[in-house]
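for the record, two folds in this file. i put them one after another cuz i was lazy. first one right below, seq on top, structure tokens after. the second one comes after a little note so u can tell where it starts
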Amino acid sequence: MAATAFLLRSLHFSPAEPRNTPHEKSHRSAYLLWKMMKGPRRRSQAVAAYNSDGNGDLEGDKKQSSFRPFGFVTDNPSSRSAIQLPESPAEDGNVGQMLYRIEDKGRDYGSYVESGNLRWFVRETGSSSQRGIILFIHGAPTQSYSYREVMSQMSGAGFHCFAPDWIGFGFSDKPQPGYGFSYTEEEFHKEFDKLLDTLNINSPFFLVIQGYLVGSYGLTWALRNSDKVSKIAILNSPLSVQSSLPSLFQKLRIPLFGEFTCQNAIMAERFIEAGSPYVLKLEKADVYRLPYLASSGPGFALLEAARKANFRDILNRITTGLSSANWSKPILVAWGASDKYLPISEAEAFQKTNPEAIQLKVIEGAGHMPQEDWPEKVVEALRRFL
């Protein structure tokens, strides 16, 4: 009996102790937290259950709100409802299974177009140009998928809409640098001209621009081809030499570290989330992730383009070229007010450089990619402007 009592004490059990002691309850709470985090539950639900049932180490609502194991989580209700965990770790951990699950996603309204020696993936909505043609240009490291909702609604309003994936991005060709394409600004402009000819876009069209790097190339192309553009709408793009350069592009320009960075398969979705008050739902994140999962090509294309871009020179040309001294055609700056990369003050300063031509529309609740965060408000702004 003495030996049995000693053994029970060593195992922290005692016949006299009540069940569910604090020691046992903490283990049960940890198990409950682990079990809830396994399934497709909201992380906030798991944390709430831990606090209400397990007591844990958290002291009240203050510590509960600071418990953020995933740093991109925000307090926005849409953000919280978007966060989901997979049914099984293999969906996020096994590349083959992930590709099989998402390989047919993200090609809304799109088809392949042969232009010169390259194949572009181009989204198109609307069959007539009753109210004109709109060409949508995306930024790096994303793709034209971000415009799908805006395109659908604008074509319903009578516009003929096109949105290509830049070469090296999305579902377009990603040639190895130096073999037919080297990802310089000049080459992007040259191939873009060829694509317009292939699409039979001849009359002046409306140009919508968003984002860094290749988005900026859309603006520098417009400065060289002002006769082909009737109006320009700019959504959250760098507009001055003082514009901040996100850490992604800074990392890409560091030798060796850039090679490592460019092969991060979740780079695009994390870039979008870091500039927005929201996180992407799984079905959207899948599409932005897919090109970087499928091959190393888009990562190395982005690396090459980022290293060859002279950001300061590009932005200086944009600021000067669109100033009142050099530009008179209408410009709409539709700006997501919650952009974490580019503050609203940048759009306000840009508007002052050409107040006669530039209109500023602030889109509350949207971040760096307002066409993804709040497409309805972008459509409203575009319809009034165009």
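(here's the note) second protein begins now
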Amino acid sequence: MAVLSSFAPLAILSCVLVIGIIVSGAEARPRAFFVFGDSLVDNGNNNYLATTARADAPPYGIDYAPSHRPTGRFSNGYNIPDLISQKLGAESTLPYLSPELRGNKLLVGANFASAGIGILNDTGIQFVNVIRMYRQLEYFQEYQNRVSGIIGASQAKSLVNQALVLITVGGNDFVNNYYLVPNSARSRQYPLPQYVTYLISEYQKLLQKLYDLGARRVLVTGTGPLGCVPSELAQRGRNGQCAPELQRAAALFNPQLEQMLLQLNRKIGRDVFIAANTGKAHNDFVSNPQQFGFVTSKVACCGQGPYNGLGLCTPLSNLCPNREQYAFWDAFHPSEKANRLIVEEIMSGSKAYMNPMNLSTILALDAIAT
């Protein structure tokens, strides 16, 4: 199924003119936006940490407007949170660790994501100093205290309750934990199906905590096609085929994640958690790149080694001249163009991609309720 293949009813889309507006006194502002997770959504928090999981050197950011300089995003340009912010009519959220995040900038929201982290605390231990999920949630609580000092506790609570939240985590629990080395500690502890069950149960605890902290509209993305990224093609794939063990991990994880989210919603009694099947959207252009204007979905635009899949992008890496033609920017991360395709599916996708509803519908319904 092609991306952009479905549309919300006209009656609902007509309400999108007032998407995301929160009225505060006589002023209106775009709804706040909060981001949690890993390198797919990190806007630069790791720039402020002593870690190797960084994207603060060229050619990262080569297409990032207007500076065309690295920002800490693991992308040639905008990442998924940036593009969602644009859909909200808002500026991009700043990294929570940024010294610029103060005063009225706090009312836009914040990005707590940190490259290298996973659902589990032992995921990404090789990166040492990263913001693990429990710490991201502590920062979210700290953020709310800071905002209360600006607009008062009641208004701060409303800002958080009416905000949109995105969380993207889980892929590293396979790539940088279970499959990091042969016979890893986790792979000795759990067969893959039991490990997935364990991850889902731990993820549910994190999401419940997010709800307890006031989140009421949460987009939860699944993992991408883990075995098809250039890194895995280079290290585990055979003859350009996706690595089967990583693909099996994603195939087990994503459906169980979606079911867990639906169960959480039933328990809460409302549609708080939205399953964003970004893996399916990503698989669309991995399996048929030409249909979406890509020359390849196997070779990264920037990197080295087979498929440009070894290590991160550096100033000495091979660099493609036209990033629009590549589904992958580096060994692990989508290009900006691929991110745009994923966000369009988040906005307008059918239930196969967005369950129980897409973001256009969410924003329209929330605008009516405001």
